[in-house]
């Protein structure tokens, strides 16, 4: 046995040594088997639906997908977001026969899924089920497509989720850059550049959603693909029978407005003060997929941008020059409307202009200097080798064919593209670079920190300021009622004396409390330790939440957040909200009473008692209702924009159980209401001045 083991080890060692002596170009590999694309069976039903069938018996699964000729391009300008919300609520709201809850339970019990959605140029619906459940669940899927119930609560939930997304759209600099660059190239008022806004979402009604569905979810707009473990002849009969109940309707014309390619360059800047780097995008209008130079342009694009570190932008701007955290680009060519050519970089604020110049230099170099044979071949290899992933599953094969049919391309469009890539020459790359790239007509957009960037952008021309503020429907303005300024001054002084009986405080106010906050997911309990320095406008809040502890701090006008050992800048909207609450704090009002413009508006009944009403001129206007005996501010009201509601709401804060410590009185119970609904309760356990 020992001899056998020793001989095996000997021959293994010899084999390893022999192989180790070979270099990579000496290794020999067998030829790969040619991949045969399986045949897809197609037919059209009497009501106009085109079906695509592909058998795959590897697993006992059946995957059915539907493409619907519709899209956000059809949204009215004042109801932007209609298509997307419709696509969401078709599934989330369930159907007339199967409510959302019962549908969810039914699918969960069978490890199945059904999904719907609508994008800019198409809609989709899908079902993935076990083979044994297909016959039972197919009618359920048809019912969902044909008879969605669109309950009001699910519509409101989808609208709230959309508004929540709107409220966060300025959180990330890169997201801002791509959104505003699209608007810059296409035009902010064009169908390709419009944003979904609070007001457009508020304008959408249930009737709008029902009409949108009824007009577009018809047989003439549908293509159905199915892949899985079935016999095509049997499946054809099942599909024809199931989908026959969908009305034929009329095919929806998707009108994609033409764009005028107005040549010209511009330099544009969007200020985001909480970042220390710049996101730069530059480019112009791209092209269409049916361009005969499509393959050559994509080879050129990969030479410039690449899909990995092989592109020139990454090699030169990032690696050699060290100017970027990332460098990227794309010459996109859409089917229905022109794409966009862009090149971009994320760089330090102080190297913004240097990075812009470096990218322009690489674009011009591509036009002026032929690429090398080695660079051409490596780029083509990258494209051709990655093409294998286009056909790595039967689902991908079927999806590709249906997509080609929907977009009006030939069945072998992808194979034609690969053949043309193989035939692309060095001369082709330089020719299309000279014809389709316009470095002297670039629209440049920078999103970054204005103070840190300074005047770097002036060299490119007059800088256009890009307004990224989120429009808020309605206003905080209210009808002005004349009041008594003298009496108002007397009341605010009485309130200040009540809150600070010993006069101004020099230390920091520290208090511990528990907050119970209402969220869309239910109530959340938070433990809070708040430290406020009213002399330096410094705020520190240590919040213990179910997911961990977060420290929020505002000092010297800068906001930051710490969680799990990581620190990040505070989002401007959050900092603004915290500072607004700080300026409404009773102690702040007491300390700054001499700077406040106040008026007495009379006695009013609030919370079951007569209170003195004074108005504080601020943004927004603050109303204080004071106890005539104690002068404590029992109620505070103001109007505030609610991102979830997408509108201005009345906020009411009711304070009680006032207690004194170290010469400062604060309420130990505070209940907050927004739009008439209670949304938070704060209970203080202790406070002090340190």
TrEMBL record:
Keyword field: Signal
InterPro entries (UniProt xref): Metalloenz_LuxS/M16, MPP/UQCRC_Complex, Pept_M16_N, Peptidase_M16_C
Signal keyword on record: yes
Superkingdom: Bacteria
Pfam families: Peptidase_M16, Peptidase_M16_C
Signal peptide start and end residues: 1-20
Signal keyword on record: yes
Peptidase M16 N-terminal domain span: 63-181
PANTHER family: METALLOPROTEASE, NON-PEPTIDASE HOMOLOG YMXG
Protein name (database record): Insulinase family protein
Organism: Rhodohalobacter sulfatireducens
Upper classification of the organism: Bacteria, Pseudomonadati, Balneolota, Balneolia, Balneolales
């Amino acid at each position: 046995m020992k001899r056998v083991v020793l001989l095996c080890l000997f021959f293994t060692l010899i084999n390893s040594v022999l192989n180790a002596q070979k270099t990579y170009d000496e290794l020999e590999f067998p030829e790969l088997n040619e991949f045969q694309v399986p045949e897809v069976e197609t037919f059209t039903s009497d009501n106009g639906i085109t079906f695509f069938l592909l058998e795959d018996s590897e697993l006992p699964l059946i995957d059915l997908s539907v493409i619907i000729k519709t899209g956000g391009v059809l949204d009215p300008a004042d109801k932007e977001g209609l298509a997307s919300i419709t696509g969401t609520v078709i599934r989330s709201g369930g159907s007339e026969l199967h409510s959302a809850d019962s549908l969810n339970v039914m699918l969960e019990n069978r490890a199945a899924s059904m999904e719907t959605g609508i994008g800019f140029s198409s809609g989709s619906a899908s079902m993935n089920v076990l083979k044994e459940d297909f016959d039972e669940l197919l009618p359920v899927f048809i019912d969902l497509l044909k008879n969605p119930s669109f309950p009001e609560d699910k519509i409101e939930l989808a609208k709230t989720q959309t508004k929540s997304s709107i409220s966060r759209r300025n959180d990330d600099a890169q997201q801002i850059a791509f959104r505003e660059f699209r608007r810059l190239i296409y035009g902010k008022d064009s169908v390709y550049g419009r944003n979904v806004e609070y007001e457009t979402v508020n304008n959408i009604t249930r009737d709008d959603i029902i009409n949108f569905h009824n007009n577009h979810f018809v047989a003439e707009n549908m293509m159905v693909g199915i892949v899985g473990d079935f016999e095509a002849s049997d499946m054809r009969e099942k599909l024809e029978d199931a989908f026959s109940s969908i009305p034929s309707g009329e095919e929806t014309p998707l009108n994609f407005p033409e764009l005028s390619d107005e040549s010209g360059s511009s330099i544009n800047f969007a200020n985001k003060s909480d970042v220390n780097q710049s996101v730069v995008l530059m480019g112009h209008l791209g092209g269409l997929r049916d361009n005969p130079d499509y393959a050559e342009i994509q080879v050129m694009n990969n030479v410039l941008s690449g899909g990995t570190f092989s592109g020139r932008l990454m090699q030169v701007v990032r690696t050699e020059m060290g100017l970027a955290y990332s460098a990227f680009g794309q010459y996109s060519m859409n089917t229905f409307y022109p794409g966009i050519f862009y090149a971009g970089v994320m760089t330090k604020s102080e190297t913004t202009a240097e990075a812009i110049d470096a990218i322009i230099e690489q674009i011009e170099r591509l036009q002026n200097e032929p690429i090398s044979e080695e660079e051409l071949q490596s780029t083509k290899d990258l494209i051709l080798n990655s093409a294998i992933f286009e056909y790595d599953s039967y689902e991908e094969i079927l999806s590709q064919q249906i997509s080609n049919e929907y977009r009006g391309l030939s069945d072998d469009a992808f194979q034609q593209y690969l053949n043309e890539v193989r035939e692309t020459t060095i001369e082709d790359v330089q020719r299309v670079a000279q014809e389709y790239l316009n470095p002297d007509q670039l629209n440049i957009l920078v999103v970054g920190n204005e103070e840190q960037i300074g005047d770097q952008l002036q060299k490119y021309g007059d800088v256009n300021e890009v307004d990224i503020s989120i429009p808020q429907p309605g206003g905080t303005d209210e009808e002005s009622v004349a009041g008594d300024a003298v009496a108002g001054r007397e009341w605010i002084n009485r309130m200040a004396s009540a809150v600070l009986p010993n006069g101004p405080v020099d230390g920091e106010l520290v208090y511990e409390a528990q907050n119970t906050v209402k969220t869309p997911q239910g109530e959340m309990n938070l433990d809070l330790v708040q430290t406020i320095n009213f002399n330096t406008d410094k705020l520190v809040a240590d919040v213990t939440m179910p997911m961990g502890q977060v420290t929020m701090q505002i000092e010297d006008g800068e906001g930051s957040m710490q969680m799990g050992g990581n620190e990040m800048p505070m989002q401007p909207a959050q900092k603004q909200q915290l500072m607004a609450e700080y300026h409404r704090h009773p102690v702040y009002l007491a300390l700054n009473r001499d700077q406040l413009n106040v008026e007495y508006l009379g006695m009013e009944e609030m919370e079951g008692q007569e209170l003195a009403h004074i108005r504080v001129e601020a943004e927004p206007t603050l109303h204080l209702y004071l106890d005539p005996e104690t002068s404590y501010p029992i109620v505070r009201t103001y109007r505030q924009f609610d991102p979830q509601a997408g509108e201005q709401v009345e906020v009411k804060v009711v304070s009680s159980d006032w207690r004194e410590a170290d010469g400062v009185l604060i309420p130990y119970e505070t209940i907050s209401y927004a739009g008439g609904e209670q949304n938070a309760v704060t209970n203080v356990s202790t406070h002090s001045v340190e």
